[in-house]
Specification:
globular, mainly alpha, 3-stranded antiparallel β-sheet, Glycosyltransferase, about 475 residues
Length: about 475
């Protein structure tokens, strides 16, 4: 009863606030991108490059405005068990599996950045591009959601896929599709996809209302599926446990409900988000924010949506720990894990930028931390870790298609071991990154350093947008 009363009391105030701030693009004609660049890092250019990376990861029939000359149509026969069209979406990494769990997390983070910092995208000339990037994923999710309680969460098998090294346009392997349903549920997968579609619906609200409504309806149905039929997706989809395991689904349920409230202002979703937060003990301080733990993101959203001290204190605890106590490399990079070193730091930067915008904790300290982390990735520590950008960028990202010369030159396993720059520049890709001693091996065959994935670039892209918006306002 107390929870219901709380939700009812704040909903009227929040409806006006949410609908007026989540989608409107403010005029920034007084901002000068060139002047901002002169005062710091070229966030606008890197933002553009990062979106090019996602374009290079596209699967399916490519549009006429494809900007990646060495990419073409691929995996046009991706089908479900009943012949459903599952073409489209994004390849996960340097291989050609479409992992729905991480693709959805990536989409949620990209949409979050576009919702939070649209002025940055507009100033960088990337507003249309971020919408295209998000829509390439949401179109695919809608295809995969073939009925109310059936969702295809993976296309391609990792072991089969890794018998092939070459161009996706020349794939000659079988590509099985895996689904969750009411008898074989996956609350984490369905919940994350619901969050992605709900967040994405906000950025399309004013430019394509019909599509926004479509995304939102699928989000609602997937959330209901996730909440009603509970279970772990990796018990159903074989590749999940080995490569993208989920160790809990309470964070995805709360994450999805919070995004649905953000998109709809319907009190039941806020009630659910708070209930999941309490029921799954999401008040504990996490040490990271990534595809397998969205707790820090849930805490930020609830702090923004409710203004309640409980959530603000949780966010402050996470950022204070990350900024002041978490392990650093000698050159200052936040170090959480060797796999996706830079991505982990970028994701924390995103959380603390969002916290600073909400005046949680020491905003100045959080923003300075985020700037230091992203600037490290762009070259402040001596080299760039973004392909095609800055000083001494990675030249051998672990990426099958980029290792191939232009057709008709053959491409195969010898290209993996060839110690030479990739013939194709995978612009904008953020590599896994250095070790705890700031050491980095730019070798294609050493994926622990040079791997690239969708989710590595997700928080990084949105953090770039957050820093660019701050940079633009500082010279307004």
């Amino acid at each position: 009863m107390k929870l219901n009363l709380f939700v009812t009391c704040i909903t009227i105030l929040l409806v006006i606030l949410i609908t007026s701030t989540t989608c409107e693009i403010n005029s920034i004609s007084t901002y000068d991108v060139k002047q901002a660049i002169e005062n710091g890092s070229d966030y606008a250019h890197v933002l553009e490059l990062s979106l090019l990376f996602f374009e290079a990861q596209r699967s399916g029939k490519l549009p006429k405005d494809n900007r990646i000359p060495w990419r073409g149509d691929s995996a046009l026969n991706d089908r479900g068990s009943n012949g459903e069209d599952l073409t489209g979406g994004y390849y996960d990494a340097g291989d050609f599996v479409k992992f729905g769990f991480t693709m959805a997390f990536t989409t949620t983070l990209l949409a979050w950045g576009a919702v939070s910092w649209p002025e940055a995208y507009k100033a960088a000339g990337q507003l249309d591009e971020i919408r295209k990037t998000v829509k390439w994923a949401t179109d695919y999710f809608i295809k995969c959601h073939v009925s109310e309680n059936v969702f295809y969460g993976q296309v391609g098998d990792f072991s089969i896929d890794h018998a092939f090294w070459g161009r996706p346009e020349e794939l000659n392997t079988s590509r099985p599709a895996y689904k969750i349903d009411a008898e074989h549920p996956g609350s984490d997968l369905a919940g994350e996809t619901a969050a992605a579609l709900a967040a994405s619906s906000i950025i399309f609200r004013n430019v394509d209302p019909e599509y926004s409504v479509k995304c939102l309806q699928h989000a609602k149905d997937l959330y209901k599926f996730a909440d009603t039929h509970r279970g772990f997706y990796h018990t159903v989809i074989p590749g999940g446990q080995e490569f993208y395991e989920s160790t809990g689904y309470g964070d995805e349920l709360a994450w999805a409900a919070a995004w649905l409230f953000n998109a709809t202002a319907e009190p039941k979703y806020l009630y659910d988000a708070i209930h999941h937060y309490q029921d799954f003990h999401l008040n504990e301080r996490p040490t990271r924010f990534f595809y397998n733990n969205k707790v820090a993101g849930v805490q930020v959203l609830l702090a923004q949506l409710t203004g309640q001290s409980e959530y603000q204190n949780a966010v402050r605890a996470f950022c204070d720990f990350s900024v002041r106590q978490q392990t650093r490399t000698p050159k200052g990079l936040l170090y959480i894990d060797k796999s996706g070193t830079l991505s982990h730091a970028a994701n924390v930067a995103l959380i603390c930028l969002a916290a600073a915008d909400s005046e949680i904790g020491d905003s100045r300290e959080y923003r300075q931390f985020a700037k230091e982390q992203i600037d490290y990735m762009l070259g402040a520590a001596g080299r760039s870790y973004v392909v095609g950008y800055g000083k001494d960028p990675p030249k051998q990202p672990h990426h099958s298609a980029a290792s191939c010369s232009n057709r008709p030159v053959p491409c195969g396993w010898p290209e993996l071991d060839r110690n030479a720059p990739n013939p194709q520049i995978l612009y904008g890709a953020l590599v896994s990154g250095p070790d705890v001693a700031d050491q980095f091996q730019d070798r294609r065959d050493d994926y622990i350093y040079t791997d690239v994935t969708l989710d590595y670039n997700a928080g990084f892209t949105s953090a770039l947008a957050g820093l660019l918006q701050l940079q633009l306002k500082s010279v307004a």
